Protein: Pilus assembly protein CpaB
Amino acid sequence: MERRNLIIIGAAVLFGLVAVYFANAWFSGVEKQQERVAEQRAMTRIAVADQDLAFGTALSSANVRLVAWPVDSVPQGAYREGEAQRLLGEGKVAIRPIARGEPILVSRISERAVLSANIPPDMRAVTVPVDAVSGVAGFVTPGDVVDVLLTRQIPGDGASSDDKMTTVVLDNVQVLAVDLRASEQNTDPSESKTATLMVHPEGAQRLALATQIGRLSLALRNVEDPGTGARRVVTSRELGGGLFIPARRASGSPAPQVRGTAATPPTAQPAAASPRPSGPGMTVVRGTDTSFVGVQRHGY
Structure:
């Protein structure tokens, strides 16, 4: 009985060793076949990022390296081995974030003037002043879409210093940069002093004029909302419930009254008395009118 068990165990061990041998031989054959295929496949060398490159990072030999890449799968716009030295010698910078190991493409780098490379030929970049309030408390970041509002004094001689009006100068405007930040990766809110907007040529003229005649504010909007906002003029009088636009008045006329408020009738003033003649006389009263009548002397 013990002999039979030993025979069974020995046979199992033998079959196991044979299975391991054949499995090892099969896997070795597959690996060698893959190596032969790789050797037969044409390869080249292209430039890739040797580390994560943020927006505005200058390319150099410290952050760019050459790696082997299959010729039939080289991305369009990649820099091959012969072009890598020219790439590093031209002072290029990244205009888009590039991950480590990712090929360096023409569309992701530019010269030092990186902002102008992002402006379409028929558009312009205009910088406007903002503050913590007009800049939406620092939540406006590059890539956002805003409406530009102008608040200014109501024109006309009948307007007081408290009469203001707000109009929409431009709507659906893309923000290119905030202060000196032009990267879309930095989304942390921070108080800004300027915002650079991408507008059409006429919009650039409007913004240049608006900065001289009033105060600009930015209204942050949803980037997926392509519609235009309200274009109606809003005045300070509307905040109190009634629309009032001061009109020009002639010199010496009374100040305009707010609609809906009863004006106080003017108080009747007595007619100005004629100049009193010199010499003796008497005062004659007729109702509310008075007059002075001179009396001549006779025989004196």
